[in-house]
Specification:
The structure is a single chain. The chain is of the alpha+beta class and 280 residues long. 28% of the residues lie in helices and 20% in strands. It contains 8 helices and 10 strands. The strands form 3 sheets. A 4-stranded antiparallel sheet has the order 1-6-7-5, with helices on one face. Strands 2-3-4-8 form a 4-stranded antiparallel sheet. The protein has a two-stranded antiparallel ribbon with strand order 9-10. Strand 2 and strand 3 form a beta hairpin. Helix 4 packs across helix 7 and helix 6 packs across helix 7. It is elongated. It starts with a helix and ends in a 16-residue tail after the last strand. The structure holds a DNA duplex (14 and 14 nucleotides).
DNA sequence: ACGGATGTTCGCGC
DNA sequence: CGCGCGAACATCCG
């Protein structure tokens, strides 16, 4: 379940499980997750102690002793999981790191859109996947002036712009859908048509939805997430097409933007935004 | 059983 | 050349 909040949750888990501890053994079978790297190349991490896990957008950066590092992108279905001694491996485990006490940390990823990359820490910090990211949507939010300047020249719609990791890193389909609804901005509004006030609303809405999802994950729901328990949809509009808008009661609609389903309220999130007419 | 799913990248056409 | 769009990747779930 990886957008910024889930990736941050994974970051905290990895630090709790591994920070200051040695990796005794790594088993990384050949799979698409390696993107062509040799399974053997991961053995450089054997015996290394994890120093810290950083997150930039949806990318995790694990720093180890000996100037070593590991980049982890969770793709669509990636998860880091802890197996206690003697527990069975989860399905679709693509990598297993054995701790000194025998516990095993698994990287699980059925669809394998995620990936792992091992290398020297300094080299990984220059990796194109990291360098191409804009400021983190949570740790380094843009000012409304900065975001407005980035989008005011674009004819692309605002939903596309907010999903663009080079503008703001960490948002995905759910968080953008939720933020646009909260800010009452139409997802199809071209970037150049957003007022400064709308950009301000969006930034507030983004931090609100990220904070709320993060809080959900680190409370009881985090445990449910780990145990794969089914929890009811916690989002305000995502996956609620056909239900009444929680603000005005209008039926929520779903459209596709860049191949992704986009739920919005046709009344609260009208295309003209605050420009156009003052009627309404 | 068919369609859709939290992400990114590549290639094509304009 | 740059932009926008659709397809592709692989598997599961309702």
């Amino acid at each position: 379940m990886p957008e910024l909040p889930e990736v941050e949750f994974s970051r905290q888990c990895l630090e709790r499980w591994l920070k200051g501890r040695r990796l005794l053994e790594l088993t990384v079978p050949e799979s698409r997750v390696l993107r062509g790297a040799s399974p053997q190349s991961f053995s450089v991490l054997e015996g290394a102690t994890l120093l810290q896990v950083r997150r930039h957008g949806k990318l995790l950066c694990l720093q180890f002793e000996r100037e070593l590092g590991l980049l982890s992108h969770l793709g669509m279905t990636g998860k880091w999981l802890l197996s206690r001694v003697g527990e069975e491996a989860p399905s679709h485990s693509r990598a297993r790191f054995t701790r000194e006490d025998g516990a095993v940390i698994h990287y699980q990823d059925p669809r394998m859109f995620g990936w792992l990359k091992v290398g020297s820490w300094s080299e990984l910090l220059e990796d194109r996947h990291l360098r191409s990211l804009g400021p983190d949507a949570w740790d380094a939010p843009l000012s409304s002036e900065e975001l407005h300047n980035k989008i005011r020249v674009s004819r692309r719609n605002i939903k596309d712009l907010l999903m663009d990791q080079s503008i703001l890193a960490g948002l995905g389909n759910i968080q953008v859908t939720e933020a646009l609804f909260r800010a009452r901005v139409s997802p199809i509004l071209p970037g150049k048509d957003l007022s400064r006030e709308q950009v301000e609303s969006l930034l507030e809405a983004i931090s609100w939805t990220l904070k709320r999802t993060l809080a959900d994950l680190s409370q009881e729901e985090g445990i449910a997430y780990l145990n794969e328990a089914k929890v009811p949809n916690p989002f305000v509009v995502y996956q609620r097409a056909g239900e009444p808008c929680p603000r005005c009661g209008t039926k929520l609609e779903s459209i596709r933007i860049s191949g992704r389903s986009t739920v919005f309220c046709p009344h609260c999130q009208r295309g003209e935004g605050l420009l156009g007419r003052g009627e309404g």
